Amino acid sequence: MQKAIWRAVIEVGFIVFLFYSNLLMGEFGRSGKGAQMGLVWAIQDMLTPANFLIALASGVVGYVAFEFLRRKF
Q: Which of 42, 55, 66, 67 could disulfide-link to 27, CB 3.0 to 4.6 Å?
């Protein structure tokens, strides 16, 4: 049981990491203001409660979807 919980935490955490890394790359893209405002501004701009809830929800949905596919195939 404990192994399954750690697996879920790691997989959700990895999806959250990917979400935030994608946001950070977007801040430095062509339309982002990160290149003008700097790295600290970009991190402050992306670390909001709304973004965290979106990342967490995406992580849980992704975990459930992958677990379903693992058990199905």
A: 42
**3-class SS string, 3-72:** HHHHHHHHHHHHHHHHHHHHHHHHHCCCCCCHHHHCHHHHHHHHCCHHHHHHHHHHHHHHHHHHHHHHHH
| Whole-number Cα distances in Å, 12 to 7, 42, 49, 60 | 9, 23, 17, 6
Looking at residue 30, its pLDDT comes to 79
pLDDT score at 15: 97
